[in-house]
Amino acid sequence: MARVVRRVWIAAGATAIVAFCLAPFLWIFIASITPEAVPDASKPWSSERAVQYFPAEPTLRNYVDLFKDVPFALYFRNSTIVATGTMLLGLVLASLGAYGFVRFRFVGRGPLLTAMLLTYMIPSVVLLVPLLVILRRIGLIDTFPGLILAESTNTAPFVLLLMINYFSTLPRELEEAAQVDGCSPLGTLVRIVIPLALPGLVAGGLLAFIMTWNNFVFAYLFTNTDNVKTLPVILRLFVLGEPAVWGVSAAGAILTTVPVALLFLLFQRMLIGGLSAGAVKG
Amino acid sequence: MKAVKLSRRSTLAGLGGAVLAGHVRGGLAAPAVRQKATISYWTWADNPAHQKMVLDAVEAFNKSQGFITVQVDATMAVMDVVRKVAAAFAAGSAPDVAGTVQTNVQNWYDTGILSPVDSYFNQWEAKDDYFPSVVDAMHSVPGQPVLYMPNAILPYVLYYRADWFSAAGLKPPTTYGEFIAAAKAMTTTDRAGYAMRGQTYYATQVIEPIWGSAGVKFADVTSGKVDFDSPAATSVTEKWVGMLTKDHSAQSTAVTDNYPQIFALMEKGLAAMWIYGTHAHPQLLAALGDRIQVVPTPRAGDEDVMLANPEGAFIVSSSKEKDAAWEFLQFMGSGDADRVLTAKRGLLPVRKSIAAEPAYQTNRFFKVAIDAQASWWHPPFAWKNWTNYQNKIAPFWQEALRGDMTPQAWQAQAAKFLRGQT
Asked: Is the ipTM reported for this complex over the cut 0.85?
């Protein structure tokens, strides 16, 4: 009986937390299927957009208007390209870098690692003008490679730290066995370490993807045309726009959130495993 | 009749003149740029519809001639343009032309980012077509060169529910006293007499013309004197705040209400009056039809003052294609481009010939503002501490509306900001 009561309390608590976390998304979804204000001259007042817990006439019109009024599909494509590119670049750099830091002893290893940590503490806002100067000089402003490089300055150090922690939990014996069999260090990394470190890579990659997907400042500053601009830039226009278009804004927010939420659902086990690796030293 | 003998020289001269005449249209001078040039233009968009207007206007310019190509970025809010242009200028990658509102013009000039257009504008035959008050604004401070090219102006008017006023036997207010009394008279249990904004940034903007009409200068750019804590200024503020705290003729949620809430109040018939720009009229007209009318903002003294803020674009000093940039600015302030950027957005053109067209003269919201153009005015944005005041005063205003700060204390604080004392 006590066990049943305990389970009920746990379920109630979990439900409350889930409801608290999901409520804003549910609210935005309801806003996205609520019709925008419709003027009706026959009534003393005409905008029927009072608070509704569910619209009397839900509609997908806002989603249609979103794609009609702005090149939302283009921004979506751009966000996907930039976030995926940043994630892949970050994973490559972080894997190589983390393996080097964890498995090799070389001159300057300690100061280099400290420098990496210190640079990560610098707010990204401080880097805006220097990055702009660099990108201008190498002709990469308003290009995908330029934006990916800029975003990587934000995400690669974070993924590197994550992978250093993860690699340090992997047993050396497997790598030593591979090297005894003639595998090179790079081969050991690719064939032995990376497959073992998959949860950590997924966690790092996912976090890099999300950080880039949500990043506004770099996208707004380093891009000038719709061909490269990403979703946060256009969503900000909706937020600050006048008059406000709540339904269309909400539709944009939902479509921006859904891909990331799906990725989380698909890889949640690996994400939890990757983030918690190294937390408990056996 | 004597036969005209055409020589080769006279024929060529005549053809050349015809070609030149064909290029002179809508007040545009003959194009100066006759080699390929690509310029970049960064500006803001209030919403996707506005963005489309800008893109369409730029495309029209690109198609109107075959030499200059303008690449436009109009995916930003106003303040984002300021930040992006400033950062890009520091990095050496600024655009050739940047959009601006009057508020920021002096800052752009003082920081060396803006390149004046005096030499171009003074030679332009359309320069006399601009409203005099707009030309003054283009100089920002008397004695300075022409700094930028406005292509639209946003006047602020008093929207009021004509049906309710008529039912109450009241005329729309012309003086500040009548306005305060009308707000009280219009207030019932179901509606507020005036829709007041308390949230946040620059919520006091709509009161500025009333202060101005009371003889308040805010700050004199020339003498450096600040009079914003004068009895005249304080009296205006006392009555305004009193609408909420004493008369209860403003909505009870005023402290935290922003534009979306106030639009909803007006559209839903929960408020009788609202001072705001003419760009609000399409939405209010769609919701209320003939029931919504406008008059100029009420005056506190003898002088009519209508807040009217120009907006447009300037040439960035780092641009290497200033001639091409000027040609683009001319186009954006002329003809169909200007009509698209004004009438459809609810703003007025800055040129007399365009404002005289039926699209503006037959629109009652525009007509009221155009007829009052002699009283168009804007606060002293060029004052060195104006940004200091504008950026810091918001939370104090909310305190005043809550009754946590007296109007006198608020006025004193605002004057301190304008003096740069804090």
From this structure: no
